[in-house]
Design brief:
Elements: H1 3-12, E1 16-18, H2 23-43, H3 48-71, E2 73-75, H4 81-92, H5 96-115, H6 121-148
Antiparallel strand pairs: 1-2
Length: about 150
Amino acid sequence: MGSAEELKAMAERQELELVEASAPKAGALIGSARRSLATCRAIARKDPNSALLLAWDGVAFPTLTAALALAGYRVTNRMGHHRVAVEAARQLFEADALLSRIGSLRRMRDRGMYEGEPPEIDEVTDALDDCEGLIQLVAKAVRSAAQQT
């Protein structure tokens, strides 16, 4: 099954919802993610747990949301929607290694939130670098889409 078909199947399973594709919305989400990434980097050494939480909730997830907005989708509020965002992005980009690490960020954040397992500073630093890579990947797609309109 190709990427378009898989995204359609995800929508049929009500994991994704069809919306009007929007490069401006995607661009705004990317701008917000960039600001949050700067905050993460500023606090990472003093408060790695908060940096990790913000890395997912303020950087990675909004960037994945931007990618989906560009493609005309959004995640639903069903259980597992964070996992769905990562899986849908795999269909949109040929960046499996990066997206695997972004998925690991989500799981690391969950361990910190639900199991009280604090992250190591090196893990946080690596995760922030991956978030920056994700922003660059999606921002490139946003620029390309904006030029086509």
